[in-house]
Design brief:
303 residues; alpha+beta; five-stranded antiparallel sheet
């Protein structure tokens, strides 16, 4: 179905010969007609009326600066970092000297490549996984990256052009009640955007806050964990009986999957050896899967 955008924000009938975009859904290079929205988002097709438009992800251009080229299209990337108050010619001379005399060289560094990394099957048992992105510092440009690139950027590795990009990591819910998943991911994105003053970050998701979502009821690979008691305590030190799930950070919480209920943090009685009981047969009730109201037994032991 065609998406609606204000006409004033659309630049239609554009064309790319390649090496500019990849298709978000296939991760393949795109060649053909496209249109832009506010100069920040790009879609396949001549205009939104074409229908079935696919989101296009810009391919970051190389950040290596060759001071001997006649047309240094990206010279301002580095020269602005040196001294934004100098004119272009002075900056260009400084960059020339810096490139020739400094031990620092963009030739030795790789540039982050746009990648959308989907969750693994095991992530659906947890219900969440971590997504990695980065922002190009001198543009309002965001794109997905892999974990290695994120780590290199965060650690300011000499292997990557960390001076030019800001790394971003977000937890992303992929299983549970669809409405809860949507709201949780939307809240995560907007909170991160506002807290870090990353204007426009939320727009890269195009309101698709259920990306990678799978219902646990339709995914046979998702196993359900159940305890008959003696394995977990509620925060008030009462015994817990019922379904539980483990988060990506290792914490255990109530419920079959994240977002099903209150997701109350559980205290394991044995952090070293948590036995996983098979899911009970259908005659079980919904006792204590989302609220601390089971029959207590034995209290807190040594806790």
């Amino acid at each position: 179905m065609a998406q609606y955008f204000p006409k004033s924000q659309i630049s239609p009938d554009l064309y790319t010969n390649g090496k500019e975009f990849i298709v978000n859904s296939t991760q393949k290079e795109y060649i053909g007609n496209y249109y832009s929205v506010s100069g920040q988002s790009f879609y396949s097709g001549k205009s939104p009326t074409d229908g079935n438009s696919s989101l296009l992800i810009p391919i970051p251009k190389s950040s290596y600066i060759n001071p001997h080229e006649d047309a240094p299209d990206n010279i301002l990337t580095l020269s602005t970092n040196l001294n934004p108050n100098l004119d272009f010619e002075t900056n260009y001379r400084l960059v020339d000297e810096y490139s020739l005399n400094s031990t620092f060289s963009f030739k030795e560094k790789y540039v982050p490549v746009a990648q959308m990394i989907p969750p693994l099957p095991i992530d659906y048992n947890v219900g969440t996984f971590t997504r990695y992105f980065c922002k190009k510092n001198n543009e309002n440009l965001y794109f997905g990256i892999n974990k290695k690139t994120f780590t290199d950027l965060k650690n300011k590795s000499s292997k990557v052009t960390y001076e030019l990009y800001t790394p971003i990591a977000l937890p992303w819910v992929i299983s549970g009640i669809e409405e809860n998943v949507f709201n949780a991911n939307k809240s995560t994105v907007f909170s991160y955007q506002n807290d870090n003053k990353l204007y426009g970050f939320s727009s890269m998701f195009f309101n698709n806050f259920t990306q990678y979502f799978q219902s646990p009821f339709n995914n046979p690979s998702i196993s359900l964990n159940y305890t008959k008691g003696g394995e977990f305590l509620f925060p008030n030190r009462t015994n817990y009986i019922g379904y539980y799930h483990q988060m990506e950070n290792g914490n255990y919480m109530t419920g079959k999957y994240h977002g099903e209920g209150n997701d109350i943090l559980l205290i394991p009685l044995n952090n070293i050896n948590i036995s996983i009981s098979p899911s009970p047969t259908p005659q079980t009730s919904t006792q204590s899967t989302s609220s601390p109201s089971p029959t207590t037994s034995g209290g807190g032991g040594g806790y």
